[in-house]
Amino acid sequence: MGWVLVFAVGVAVGVLINKFRARSESAGKLLSASQDERAEVESNDAEEAFAEIFRDAVNSLSVGVVVAGADGTVIFRNTLALGLTGAVHSDVLVDEAVEVHLSGALARRTGRQVIDLFGPPRKVVAVFSSPLEGGGAVAMIEDITERHLVDTVRTDFVANISHELKTPVGALAVLAEALADEDDLDIVHRLSEKMVDEAIRVGRTIDDLLELSRIEFGGEAVKDPVSVESILQESIERVRSLATSHSIRVVMNTPDADMQAIGDRRQLVSAVSNLVENAVKYSEPDSSVEVSALVDSDWVEMCVQDFGVGIPLRDLDRIFERFYRVDRARSRDTGGTGLGLAIVRHVANNHGGEVSVTSIEGEGSTFVLKIPRFTMKKENP
Question: Is 0.85 topped by the overall pTM?
Fold first, then answer.
């Protein structure tokens, strides 16, 4: 929020408070007033009606507004501020910050402070303050949790992409230099193959980053009824060639034909295909990956189970983080970017669901994507 808005709201609230004070005075004068005085009182009543509208406008703001008089006494809080300050359930940190900033504003200083509230739920709020022209001060509280989260994601995104692309791009430069000075045909072929591998790695990382950013910043997921069977089938088809090259059998336990989830088909296929691809990459040759779905009350659970290397217990809490890899050496061999499971987590969040994993080292892992179930509402007879 800019300082212009802070000043504008402050002036508006100041006008509102002054009009409020004038109301009781006008009522007292009305009985003993002359005609001219009555006209003046009627004019004041019109202004009071305007003040009431202004108060409603301030109450409708998406920021909390707290106004203090010249003596520091709080004389007005809008509806949102009542839930954030000066109430039984308000946060102590916000109360203290508002008090400090109002004191500063009474001393003709403007101020701004960002407060991280760890909750639950976790929130980030900004407190602004400004002196009022006619004396007194105004403080505003804005919930900037979503904006703060987006800024954090963007910062992490830039840092991560810089880090992840630096290695393969650097490798390409080294290989190109070596290739330029090489006359042996066998070595030229070997270096060229490595360059192709690194170029593919860069392309795969960029594709996954674009997919992740599309899911993160693409707005809310579409909430349509989608066939669970078709989601599983399309997800498996996307990974079919990879599974064949790894000698992995992908088996689908066909769900009921009428089983439906509520969600964005494109995002759900992206999530499940990432789970299947992850299972294939971390399975041993000639083993299998099982894909299934079941209904649990109001939820559909899409499951991907492998019988591969498994995941160490210490890593289970972190595998859904961007670029986190359990075994970096193996990830490089399999071509993993470390973004697939982060995509799955964001798809689950976008749908109000969740993704979970159980795993035993040396025996395999089972991932479960839980999404709201679609059920037909029965019409009353």
Answer: no
Query: Do residues 142 and 62 lie in contact, with contact meaning Cβ atoms separated by under 8 Å?
Result: yes
In the CATH hierarchy, which top-level class contains the domain 145-219? mainly alpha
HEC per residue, 310-349 = CCCHHHCCCCCCCCCCCCHHHHHHHCCCCCHHHHHHHHHH
User: How does pLDDT run across 142-180, given as a tens digit for each residue?
Assistant: 888 888 877 776 777 677 667 667 777 888 888 888 888
Predicted confidence (pLDDT) per residue in 51-94, tens digit: 677 777 777 777 888 888 888 888 888 887 777 765 544 567 88
From CA 9, how far away is CA 140, in angstroms rounded? 9
Q: 55 phi and psi, to 5 degrees?
A: -65, -45
CATH number of the domain at 221-381, out of 3.30.565.10, 3.40.50.1000, 3.40.50.720, 3.90.1150.10? 3.30.565.10
Fold agreement between 145-219 and 221-381: no
What residue ranges do the domains of the chain occupy? 3-143, 145-219, 221-381
Distances (CA, A) of 128 to 19, 76, 125, 164: 24, 16, 10, 39
Q: In the chain, at which residue ranges do the beta strands (DSSP E only) sit?
A: 64-68, 74-77, 111-117, 123-131, 137-143, 224-227, 249-252, 260-263, 288-296, 299-306, 354-360, 364-372
Give the residue among 178, 147, 144 at the shortest CA–CA distance from 64: 144
Task: Answer for the pair 269, 234: CB distance below 8 angstroms, yes or no.
Answer: yes
In angstroms, the CA 340 to CA 322 distance is: 8
Architecture of domain 3-143: 2-Layer Sandwich (3.30)
Residue 145: CB atoms within 10 A of its CB come to 16
C-alpha 25/C-alpha 3 separation (Å) is 34
Res. 42 pLDDT band, cuts 50 70 90: low
